[in-house]
Amino acid sequence: MANVSLQQIGKSYGGSVAVEAFNLEIRDGEFLVLLGPSGCGKSTTLRMIAGLESITTGDLLIGDTRMNNVDPKNRGVAMVFQNYALYPHKTVSENMGMALKLQKMPKADIEERIAGVADMLGLTDYLERKPGSLSGGQRQRVAIGRAIVRTPEVFLFDEPLSNLDAKLRVKMRMELQELHDRLGVTSVYVTHDQVEAMTLADRIVIMDGGVIAQVGTPREVYDKPATEFVAGFIGSPAMNFMTMQLASDGSWSSTESTLVLPELPGFDTRGADTVRVGIRPEHMTILDASAVGDDPWVLPGKVMLAELLGADALLTLSVCGEIMTARVNGVGYPEQGQQLAVRLNPEQLHAFDRESKKALQV
Amino acid sequence: MSNRPRIILYSLVGLSVVISFFPIVWLVLTSLKNTAGIYSWPVQYWPDPLTFQNYWSIFTETPELLRYVLNSFIVGVGCTILTLSVGGLAGYALSRLRMRFAGVMMVIILSVSMFPPIALLPALFQTFLNLGLLNSFTGLILAHTGLFLPYTVWMLASYFRTLPVEIEEAARLDGMGFLRIFFSIILPLSWPGFVATGLIVFIFSWNEFPLSLVLMTQDAMRTAPVGISLYPGEFAFPWETISTATVIAIIPVLVITAIFQKQILGGLTAGSGK
Questions:
Q1: Domain count, chain B
Q2: Which residues make Cβ contacts (< 8 Å) with residue B90, sequence separation at least 6?
Q3: Measured between beta carbons, which residues in chain A are less than 8 angstroms from residue B268?
Q4: Which residue of A40, A159, A204, A344 is most buried, as measured by CB atoms within 10 A?
Q5: Is B274 on the interface with A (CB under 8 A)?
Q6: Fold exhibited by the domain A237-353
Q7: Count of alpha carbons within 13 Å of A98, Cβ hemisphere only?
Q8: ipTM of the assembly?
């Protein structure tokens, strides 16, 4: 086991920059998730740790050793790929034992290790089969087994669950979690699925355009998104954003609708007169239309569209002309066309600088 | 829906089968006729009498024709093995090793194959003469390899590109070097591609005429297409011997194709990925 240290890591292809000035200390035994939209540089970063991609600038340390120019096999890392990448012409057991065989470990020891890992993953009955005769979930389990057998210092996962169907993905996600609790090996996990990130991660690194947008625990990135990008990326459906302008009486009014907020509670707007304000769909309270009145945070609205998801329903609302999404209970929600009132909970508002897109401090 | 499009389709398929098979069928029928039957008028369709005399004569009277077939076989097998070895490694390097100028090299390789073989002959003949490679299997195998290598490199490179690159990356993490990856991962996974390409190269080599004609001047070293076409004498045209020799020359190709055809159809990458 080891910590991984990325210091000013950068990657560029010809002239285009894929990853820039990436600084991160991954703690020993930590489960770190790299999250971001496709093309944000998360896979490139993982592949640089693996040694499959050269590092243009900066230093990569695993344990205390600089690994920039070390061959992948000598980095003490094992990787699980999205499409499993098993050797189709070799049996499950040969697939799992390949690295050890190449290290010239005695055959009996290899078999013992494989047997142990196969038992842990429920693969004992499949050891002599070829990957082609296994289901997707079993194949990914073999790929994970192949990584475990090597007892690496660091596990690298590149979207390992993306090829599985929804039900299996949830099951494998829980298995991965159990496995990490049990083995305690430092893990770096790349995904674009925020549910995987939120459930698996000790810390999430959210990347955008080759740079880190925020590093934090799942709780932190949800509650205190550091940038407008993170705020919009984490949470589903996405946060509602409004561009608000300061009026002479100290209230804030939307530039695109008649929506007016009495104040921006506690935010240090640094003298700016225009900011971006966000509120999550789950932080809006739906009230009866008659509730509009005394409370300045209660605003009149109309249901444009109501969609039942099951336990929840999503309402697309026009609040003073501002289009917003609200998440409400799936039982007894208002119908399309209905007039109502919405309370934006002031303590759950987010505000961002219009230029830098950074969160304003409270 | 009516069956008409389907009927038309099958008729066209049937027609093309008949057209392409007629010469071969006629060849086989001719080889089974006696001399009188071949020249009789009106044309004799079914051999009467049906005789295997011609085949017997080839073995007893003109064994040099069998020698040509053997020569073709030696050259074809040698050329196929050499072409696949060199072409496989080159194709892998050019498609996967992230070399600089790989694209340019591929284009150069392709453009080389655009020269008609006949254009190469004067220079090749002189070179082979100086090197003492005329009338040697090594010489013709090298010449054929040079001729069919561009095709092989392109075929195999494009086959390698269809393999998921993650398998190779996993192998690198497992500790394999490039040569080991090629031999223990790429080769078994590209087996159908190698077989298909190898078959085509073998057939190319088997049928190749101009180089074989010029580089093999001794009668005993001639390949089947050259030997059979030069067989007719000045005054006589022994159709029965020629057609029989041609049938015998087709047989090795048919047998090899039959053996390997299943390998081409069976994909091996099933199960590596999704």
A1: 2
A2: B149, B153, B157
A3: 88-89
A4: A204
A5: yes
A6: OB fold (Dihydrolipoamide Acetyltransferase, E2P) (2.40.50)
A7: 30
A8: 0.84
